[in-house]
Amino acid sequence: MENVSIPDGGPPVCNDSMDFSSFTSGNQTGLNCTPPSPFYDLYVILPVIYSVICAVGLTGNTAVIYVILKAPKMKTVTNMFILNLAIADDLFTLVLPINIAEHLLHYWPFGEVLCKVILSIDHYNIFSSIYFLTVMSIDRYLVVLATVRSKRMPYRTYRAAKIISLCVWILVILIVMPFTVFAGVYVNPNDGRKSCVLSFPSPESLWFKASRIYTLILGFAIPVSTICILYTMMLYKLRNMRLNSNAKALDKAKKKVTIMVFIVLAVCLFCWTPFHLSTIVALTTDLRTTPLLIGISYFITSLSYANSCLNPFLYAFLDDSFRKAFKKMLECRPA
Asked: pTM for this structure?
């Protein structure tokens, strides 16, 4: 996903000095430049990779949504957050075919409104996963803390989880709003080709860097720092407090849920950390275009996309209740 900013009065520029983040931070075919011959293989392979991610992600996340909504025993606080995470991932995989079509056509045929929608969802994908995982980490910390202290949590209800999830959706929409404003269709004056890009005002290079810093801080630094602090405090309390008989229940169901959330978080960070590191590299260095660098940048993009289809497999492997509910619903289907 490549977000190309448009300089005032001029088309996007293709040269041999590449902004590394531009290949890992938006819509992949925003820049209509004919790829050098070493890169043609990537233009063939990428649609296949994106198609697999789309098919697997759409199937898996839809299954998660279906099970949580239909199985009464799956209506828990943690599963409410998982449900919203699956909805966000499903929303992203639904628009991947449009990205694939643009990639193959080498121009944007879908109009201004859809351009804003697609780039908004692209950026929503950057923020939504980590924000819902931050909320899940806060929830796990409060559960562990209450269990260690043998206290009840009357405020931790399914309804409260719904309200918190709605607040996360609204927050991320507000964060993504600037990208929606700057998204638009650019017509190349040389060949008339249309591109769906981020069109920043002058000085566009400053605005582009500001957008990368904005994404890095709000989409990575703040939520990841919060999560690290929470899990550090959680481990500290578990090591330094003797669990009483009630708290030992944490070793069973609650511990399993905590581990599952931690693993889902670890996979998310594995998929998204290279994306944000590439932003740091782009802001601090001036790298030249090479086949290796182009390959790495597309790999980073694909890895961040892949996160949207991995979570359902994690739930299936780590959550017994999810497996049982899914199996039961399959068995109950009419022949």
From this structure: 0.81
